[in-house]
Design the sequence.
């Protein structure tokens, strides 16, 4: 048994959680943007929960879900457009004589 109970250390050669998160962020930078947008929308809508007026709770929650999903879908679409740009347009501009 280890004397340092409660702390998990990755085996040798594996990334820590923060290193893995940073690597994944560099590979696809819009995933954290989409996640941040979802969290920001959810936090704002929860904050505005008291001032919803006569709107039913279920309607308020549906609007919150739709707005959060719109942020996530928007980030996915931006990522797809960026990937298509990087793979097709930027690559064809770099290699004009290969065709």
Sequence:
């Amino acid at each position: 048994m280890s004397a340092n109970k409660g702390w998990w250390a990755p085996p040798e050669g594996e990334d820590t959680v923060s290193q893995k998160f940073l690597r994944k962020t560099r590979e696809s930078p819009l995933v954290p943007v989409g996640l941040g947008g979802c969290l920001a929308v959810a936090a704002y809508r929860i904050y505005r929960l008291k001032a919803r007026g006569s709107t039913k709770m279920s309607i308020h929650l549906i609007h919150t879900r739709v707005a959060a999903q719109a942020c996530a879908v928007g980030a996915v679409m931006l990522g797809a457009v960026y990937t298509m740009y990087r793979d097709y347009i930027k690559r064809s501009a770099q290699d004009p004589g290969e065709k």
Q: What stands out?
A: Residues 41 and 47 are 10 Å apart (CA to CA). The radius of gyration is 21 Å. The longest helix spans residues 57-94.
